[in-house]
């Protein structure tokens, strides 16, 4: 909730909208009271308060795994504050899954592949929170920006009970991986990381 309210301030509370472009766990800091603070604005861009769309942007920006599809290829839609929503959704799903990006001890990988909920006592309350975060996360990572909720809607969803939330629609791609790769290379420059992202999306 604290991260969402921080994004709401960036998207709606400032004189000019701010799109962070690098929302990820490493850029969310906790103070002494464990209140989250969004950090590292090196990739951020300003846009007009009446609009949330970035009219021009050279190349993709952000961290692989958290970058919205439209940042790579405009065929998915326009780059806007909804791009931060996608990243926020990936943060939620990573929190629910409890998986580390890098395994420090490959020999014990069979013990670390599961979500962290397995090593805690799962109560009805924690299960409901995890389910709510997963549902909202899936809403946030819809492939097209217009299908994602605004940050204000996300906050409203976080404040509701899980029984009040709708199930997000199934995702699908209407073009082939080859078409995606061509679109990415012509829109944001050739980059081997782009291909890694596309292979992840198509799985």
From TrEMBL:
Is Glycoprotein tagged as a keyword? Answer: yes
Q: What is its main location?
A: membrane
Its topology with respect to the membrane? Single-pass type I membrane protein
Keywords noted in UniProt:
Glycoprotein, Kinase, Membrane, Serine/threonine-protein kinase, Signal, Transferase, Transmembrane, Transmembrane helix
Subcellular location per UniProt equals: Membrane
Membrane spanning residue stretches: none
Q: Which Pfam families match?
A: Pkinase
Q: Which stretches make up the Protein kinase domain?
A: 1-173
Task: Give the record's GO CC terms.
Answer: membrane
Q: Which Gene3D superfamilies match?
A: Transferase(Phosphotransferase) domain 1 (1.10.510.10)
**What SMART domains has UniProt attached to this entry?**
S_TKc
- Can you name this protein? Protein kinase domain-containing protein
Q: What would you give as a GO molecular function for this chain, any one?
A: ATP binding
Q: Per the record's keyword annotation, is Kinase included, yes or no?
A: yes
Its taxonomic path starts at: Eukaryota, Viridiplantae, Streptophyta, Embryophyta, Tracheophyta
């Amino acid at each position: 909730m604290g991260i969402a309210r921080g994004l709401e301030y960036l998207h709606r509370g400032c004189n000019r909208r701010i799109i962070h472009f690098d929302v990820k766990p490493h850029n969310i800091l906790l103070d002494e009271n464990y209140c989250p603070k969004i950090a590292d604005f090196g990739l951020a861009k300003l846009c007009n308060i009446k609009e949330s769309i970035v009219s021009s942007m050279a190349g993709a920006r952000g961290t692989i795994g958290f970058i919205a599809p439209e940042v790579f290829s405009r065929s998915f839609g326009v780059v806007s504050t909804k791009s931060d929503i996608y990243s926020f959704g990936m943060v939620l799903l990573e929190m629910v899954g409890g998986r580390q990006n890098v395994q420090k001890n490959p020999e014990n990988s069979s013990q670390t592949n599961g979500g962290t909920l397995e090593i805690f006592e799962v109560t009805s309350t924690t299960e409901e929170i995890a389910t709510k975060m997963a549902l909202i996360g899936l809403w946030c990572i819809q492939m097209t920006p217009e299908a994602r909720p605004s940050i204000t809607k996300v906050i409203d969803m976080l404040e509701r009970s899980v029984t009040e939330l709708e199930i997000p629609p199934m995702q699908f791609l209407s073009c082939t991986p080859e078409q995606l790769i061509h679109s990415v290379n012509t829109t944001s420059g050739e980059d081997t990381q782009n291909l890694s992202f596309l292979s992840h999306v198509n799985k």
